[in-house]
Amino acid sequence: MEHAGKHALVTGGGTGIGKDVAIALAKAGADVTITGRRADKLDEVAALHERLHPLVMDVSDEVSVRDGIAAAAKARGPVQICIANAGIAEGKPFDQTTLADWRRTMVTNLDGVFLTVQAALATLGPEDAGRMIVISSIAGVRGLKNAVPYTVSKHGVIGLIHGLSEEYLHRPITFNALCPGYVDTAIVRNQLPGLMKRFGVDEDGAIAAIAKGNRSRQLLQVDETTSALMWLCSDGARSINGQTVEISGGQV
Ligand code: NDP
User: Fold this and answer.
1) Cα(92)–Cα(174) distance, rounded to whole angstroms?
2) pLDDT in tens, 85-118
3) Among 35, 213, 245, 247, which one is least packed by beta carbons within 10 Å?
4) How far is Cα 25 from Cα 110, in angstroms, rounded to an integer?
5) DSSP-assigned letters across all residues of 88-145
6) What residue owns the CA closest to ligand 1's atom 10?
7) 3 - beta bridge partners?
8) Residue 145's CB: how many other CB atoms inside 10 A?
9) Element of type H or E holding 176
10) Is 27 in the active site?
11) Contacts of 180 (CB under 8 A, 6+ apart)
12) Residues 174 and 130: beta-carbon distance below 8 Å
């Protein structure tokens, strides 16, 4: 079991994509620190496996991230696997997007990933191997209308891994981005009422509208993102570095 004994950090590990991969990593033998703002969500997930460790941490707060990750490393060792997954998605036409909307997205999706990856890297010694993975989106590789701040933030994290994969070429650490299409999680479900109103359709109609680019015409499931993430943090993926892996059923 190649993950056994490793310390993995999954931000946003209390729900959705993060929760599913955190459980898979724990079952594979890793000790997994799961973070988020809602303690109740984290505690629910931590109760599912003894190797899941909850940590309340707000990725938009520098002190919270630096202190939180340092404390996790003290308890469980260097962060050898970091999945910077926490994020928010808000939709609005560009001409109605305020500076406050823009900043809210950037501080979570971009600053949060910067802080998380930097703090995780700081726990690794010069010879330590590491897997740093950011969750971007199909919106990181193409434009998503009515979601310009989200699109920019998800392009931004790809820039981050491109830069880091060059800067850390002398170290045994890889930096990659996963770019999922629409996955059936809260972030998508929470947008359905707005889409139903906008398109004048029911819930199935709203799902059909956003899933129409997928070959299956259905939302992706979290086991698909988990499979890709487990591969990206495996020993076999040691030469995959600075890459974007799109998992979108043909949407891009
Ligand atoms: P969820 O809404 O279930 O997960 C988002 C997670 O991020 C939550 O656990 C939330 O926890 C956490 N989070 C949000 N803001 C903060 C913050 N300031 N500090 C700490 N944690 C925070 O949706 P998904 O699982 O789908 O989303 C995970 C990632 O995947 C996101 O980055 C999203 O953009 C990306 N993604 C999702 C897609 C989809 O279709 N579902 C497609 C492409 C990318 P809490 O609220 O408790 O803090």
Assistant:
1) 35
2) 999 999 899 999 999 999 999 999 999 999 999 9
3) 213
4) 25
5) ------GGG--HHHHHHHHIIIIIHHHHHHHHHHTTS-TT--EEEEEE--GGGTS--T
6) 12
7) none
8) 10
9) strand 173-180
10) no
11) 17, 135, 137, 138, 220, 224, 225, 247, 248
12) yes
The ligand 1 atom nearest the CA atom of 14: 9
CA distance 181 to 178: 10
Instruction: Report the alpha-carbon distance of residue 229 to residue 233 in Å, rounded.
Output: 6
| Residue in the block written with tokens 């698909």 | 224
CA distance 4 to 74: 18
d(CA 53, CA 16): 17
154 has catalytic annotation: yes
> What's the token pair of residue 33?
């620190």
**CA-to-CA distance for 69 and 59, rounded, in angstroms?**
11
Closest CA relative to residue 110, chosen from 87, 132, 90, 79: 87
Which residue reads 């994020």 in tokens? 87
Tens digit of pLDDT for each residue in 120-163? 999 999 999 999 999 999 999 999 999 999 999 999 999 999 99
Hey, what are 128's tokens?
């330590």
